[in-house]
Design goal:
single chain; 396 residues; alpha/beta; two-stranded antiparallel sheet; 15 helices; 10 strands; 48% helix; 9% strand; globular; binds 3-O-methylfructose in linear form; binds magnesium ion
Amino acid sequence: MSACGGAYSPEVRRRYFITGPQWAAAYEGHALFHAPTRKPVGFEDTIREYARIGIGHWCTHDTDVIPTGALGKDGQEEIVARIRKALAEHGLECSMVTTETFHHAVWAASPAAEAPEVREYAAWRLANTVKIGHELGAKFAVYWPGSLGYYVQGAIEETQTLAWYAEGLNAACEADLKLAARHGRPTLKHCMEAKPFEPQAEILLPTSDAMLSFIASGLLTHPEMVGLNPEYLHELMWGAAPRAALARALTAGKLWHFDINDGYRLKHDVDIAVGLVNPLDWLNVLVLLRSHGYNGPFNLDYKPPRTTSNHGVFAVSFPTAVDRFITLWEMAGEAIADPVIAEATAALKAGGGVKDTRDAEAIVAANRELLTLHELIAHRMVQILIGQHRGRTFSV
Ligand code: 3MF
Ligand code: MG
Ligand code: MG
C-alpha cells in the first residue's frame, strides 16, 4: 500500500459523504457456487476500522446487526444501544438503514406475497427499521425489494403485487411521520433501489426508470417522501448507460442516494469496487453529479473480492476504493473547470449561426466542423483520466 502511494489521509477522506455498509465489510466471500473465504466481522470491528480509514458514515440492514428472531424485542434495544456507543466512540454517523427483504425464507414469495400475514410482517419490519433509523440518527432509508418478482410465469398477478408492495412503503412512510414528530427530527428520505435480475428470474421493478414510474403511479400515499438509490452496476447490468439513468433520476428530482461500485454489462451482480472496471465512465458519471450539485451519500456497496483476506478488507480494499472515488471526484472537478472542454462546449452550444432554420443542408454545413468537437471532448476526458494533458514520457 505504501509503495502504491496516492493515498488520502483519513481527515481528507472524511470530508466526502462516503458511506460504508456493514454488509460490505462483513461479506465473507460466499455465493451460490462459493464457500466463504473470510471470517464474520461484527459491527464494532467495522465501525472501528471505517473510522481508522476515514469513512465517516456507516449503514446497515436490520438483520446485519440484529438476528431476525430478536427484532422488535429487548435484544434489539441492546444492540441499538451498542451501535450508538460504537458510533459515538469512533466519531461516525449512521447515514442509512435498510430492511433485509430478500434473504430470509419468509420472503420466498417476496415482501408483497399473497398471504396477508407476510405483508403485515413486511410492513412491521419496514416500520421497525425506520424506528431504528431515528434511534441511530439516520437520514435515509433504502429499499431494495429483492425477490419482488417470480420464477414461473402466471403464478402472480403483477398489478396486484405492485399495489401490495406500495402498501408496505406507505406503512413505512406513515410510521416515519409519527416517529419523526416524536423524535423531533425530519422524516427520512426513503430511497428505492432497482436491480434488473437476481434473486428472482423476473423482477417487477427492474430499473430506476421503472421505480420512477412506480413512485408517480398514484399507488404511494406519500410520493414526495420516496426517491431513488440507483446502484451504478445495477443500471449497467441491464445494458443502460448509468450516466443517462442518473440524469433521468436527476431530472425527476429523485436522485437522493447512490450505491457506488463497478462491473460488467449484462452479467450478474459482481459488485466490484468503484472504478476498477470502467474508470472513464465513472469520471463522466461524476462530472454529471458534480455539475448538478448532487450532495447525497456515495455508498460503497461493493464486495471485497473473495481473494482478499480479512486483513486485506480494511488494509487494502476499503481505503483503495475510497481513494479511487476521491481521485475521480477531483478529476471531475478538473473536467468541469477545463478550458478546452468549456470552449468546445460553448462553441457547440452557439451552433453554426444559420438564419434560415428550415434549410437542413445549410444547418449540416454550418455544424460539420463544430461536431468534430464531440471527439475532441472525449479525447480530453481520457487525457484528464490518465494524466496525459500534463505530459508523460517513459521511453523516448
Ligand atoms: C443488492 C444490493 C443490496 C442493496 C441493499 C440496500 C446488499 O444487489 O445492492 O445490497 O443495496 O439491500 O438496501
Ligand atoms: Mg450490486
Ligand atoms: Mg446496492
